[in-house]
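User: Run a structure prediction on this.
Assistant: Running it now.
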Amino acid sequence: MNLTRALPRSLLTTLALTALTPSAASAQTVSLVTSSPALRTQLAAIRSSTGVPAVAAAIVVDGVVYYAVVGVRRADLPATGTNLVAASDEFCLGSVSKPYTAVALARAAELNLLPWNTTIGSVFPGYFPNTVTGNRYRDNTVAQLAAHASGMWYSPAGQPVGDEFSLPLGDDTRRLLYTINALRDPPVFATEGGSNYDGGAIIAAAMYEARNPQTFAQLMAERVFTPLAMSQSHAIVDRSSALSTWLGSPTLLPHQKAANGSYTPQSYSHGIRWMVGGVHSSIVDMARFGYMAMYAPTPLPHLYGSAQRTLLATAVGRGSYSPGWAVGSSDAAHGVELYHNGDDGRSHATMRVWPNRRVAIVTAVNASSAEATSACNQAEAWLMGHLADFGVSATPDADVIDNAVTRTTPVTVTASSNSGSAPLVTDASYSTGWTASAAGVVSTITIAPTSGVLPPFSRIFLDEGAPVQPPGFTSPPAWQIGGGGIRTFPISQVTVVAYAGGVGTVIANSDHAGRRRTISFPTQTNVTRVVVTVQSTFAPASLRAVHLLRPITIPLFPL
């Protein structure tokens, strides 16, 4: 399999050959940053109940950031004076670093410094073949590496104990050693066959550094932090940088929870892995980044072009990750949801972006524990429950809802299955849902107008449920697969047939559905019914929504 299965070749060509990079002054930046007394009161209550050293949260709504921070920089010092956490303090983001890294890669792609379809073999031809995997990873692309779709392990088997700190080598040299070791491991699944939470972005960064004179940290600072006015964001690239002056005095430190319930300050140490777990940002800068990730509509200039926006919001292959994000869908988001959380064993952070509602919610705690996770979750939940207080629009997923044929035409929806009844859920406003009850089930969903013909339509929107671990799969140890395990989508075939009178024509045929996927075809007219046939490889399989969409006259996200 290759990337073109999930992303059209035309898109990859655009990504590889075009450079649509606005100037630093024109990048999408927030319009107002203001503290929220109500949020601060809530965070104080959360900190009191959880006992975490410090907690921060923010919500950005159409360019306006509302934030609050409470607590202390270090739990072993008095909660007074300069030890009180400030809005400028930078929290370790853990795996929320991955969206930052993906955007840096998007900037590099637009400048043709490292296109998304660049393969490992083209950058490191001398690393192939090797005695274990031969040429197995040679054709893996930057996009697949950044989307956990390469089939690589979480930690290479040959990486020395203490990996990035055990050898007296430079940061870039150790990153190359990580790459060599990763390429020696046998894959846990075929490329794009699912998602495995791996360190592929580390290799993508090594590829960039091999092709360009600057470091990946310099790329991120120059092409991401500076244009977005993220002056309180940095990448720690080695242990020797742990007490850099930008961390404040006294330093905001991460913490681990001791057996007696107290929190002990820890040092920073991410070395070669900083691009997947060691970026640091203030809560306001996290909000700035979240706002950029919404992708503002034209004519407002953006940090990158619409082709990059599409790639960063599209899951690769049969997995649920795009480069940088876990791609999901929720009613609260009114459609697509981009999400990542991060925990490096000493800090915890979350970032949730709802492009269709122009909202991003971010949280951070300078500790790792069940209570730290709870503190972030509680802060998120409170903000989600008070969206109207921050002026969040109730406008839902405009493209799907406004263009669904059932908005204007009453339809009848029926379903059948070769394994008995297939549960069917319908929403009179616009949606149809389907769930498979057994492995190998073949179900049909028929959409027909109550009278006459369907209005013209030129797209079908499919939103598959959550990916799952395949049955009978023996999971490797956690150090191979990370925290998320192996995940893939069960639906293995989707066929769409349009009937005009008694004649049926196949208008769409795909070997997967996936998250929030729109398949386009020539405009269909005078259609009396549409039959969608779905086959699942194993249960549970589901389509959260199936929509026929009317033609649109202009691109949703023009370049």
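The domain at 22-99+215-390 is CATH 3.40.710.10 (Beta-lactamase).
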